[in-house]
Amino acid sequence: VQLQESGPGLVKPSQTLSLTCTVSGGSITTNYYYWSWIRQPPGKGLEWIRAIGYSGSTHYSPSLKSRTSIFRDTSKNQFTLQMNGLKPEDTAVYYCNADVHYLGTTTYWGQGTQVTVSS
């Protein structure tokens, strides 16, 4: 499974960010797959944001729930994160990944995309 993030590299404060992950080598509706967005601010650890499961179920981080949403386009084999009310502290490398929960857990990562929030 390969994942590729796409989206704007620079966003102004208070704007909405939309990041899309395009998946190849597997379908986002395949059983046992969970598709997530994770970020890493400069100098900090990884922070999980949102996930969407193979059935379409969604999961969220409580700290970011009010500002984020996740949805998928099965015809394009993509899933998208939207985050509104951006702040400078949302500056981070954003990753999409896939966890496969079958006979253990296997994880696949995209290469990540830098998002900078600045006026």
Kindly describe this structure.
The chain is 0% helix and 55% strand. The strands form two sheets. Strands 2, 4, 5, 6, 9, 10 and 11 form a seven-stranded mixed sheet that branches. A four-stranded antiparallel sheet has the order 1-3-8-7, with no helix packed on it. The N and C termini lie far apart (36 Å). The protein is globular and about 45 Å long. With 119 residues, the protein is an all-beta fold.
State the main characteristics.
mainly beta, 7-stranded mixed sheet, globular
Concise account of the structure shown:
The chain is mainly β.
How are the elements arranged and paired?
Layout: E1 2-6, E2 10-11, E3 17-24, E4 33-40, E5 47-53, E6 58-60, E7 68-73, E8 78-83, E9 92-101, E10 105-109, E11 113-117
Parallel strand pairs: 2-11
Antiparallel strand pairs: 1-3, 3-8, 4-5, 4-9, 5-6, 7-8, 9-10, 9-11
Q: Please give the share of residues in helix.
A: under 10%
Global mean pLDDT: 96
Q: Which percent range describes the beta-strand content? A: over 45%
Shape descriptor: globular
Compute the number of strand runs. 11
Q: How large, in whole angstroms, is the Cα Rg? A: 14 Å
Give the end-to-end Cα distance, rounded to a whole number of Å: 36 Å
> How is the biggest beta sheet arranged?
7 strands, mixed
- How many separate helices? 0
Low-confidence stretches: none
Instruction: Please provide the ordered H/E string of secondary-structure elements.
Output: EEEEEEEEEEE
* Structural class by SSE content: mainly beta
